[in-house]
Design brief:
This protein is mostly helical. Helix content is 75%, strand content 5%. Strands 1-2-3 form a 3-stranded antiparallel beta sheet, sandwiched between helices. Helix 1 packs parallel to helix 7. It starts with a helix and ends with a helix.
Amino acid sequence: MINSDIYQRAAFIRGHFINQVAFIEKMMEYFTAFHFCRDRERAMEMVDFLTGDRFVSFESKRNVFELVLEHHFKEVYNSNKEYRSFLTTIQNERNKLAHLTVLIDEQSIDDFVHKGSIYLIKFGEKTKGIEYSKSHVDDIMYKVNVVAEWVKDLVENNNALSELT
């Protein structure tokens, strides 16, 4: 059934994207914590208490991460403007993918069958929704995957991951 295929496609896109964002967020936390504290226990405490999900938003973590890069890793900061701009895109896309619902109507079914697009919409709205075409999905998946690799490399190159795990 087409509805099931649409939901499966949406679940795959959301699952992969949000999982990668969670990874990026954790890597930014490790990088920032290890920058300020080389003691494993204290760095982990900083991640748990200060940058953990309870108190600090993704946007705030991104801002602190970028400030650390700008002030202490100027070459990395200046040479990775594209990846830093991807972080903003990723943050916005994450919010849409996490909070909007899948739209199922005649037009969205037709677009799914003919173009592979899915639509997300705010619950209760009657508008067309936000289209996630194949090219848009490919674009955001590319961005989230390259940024995940970039922040992982930053953590590894700063020896933070080996020290913290």
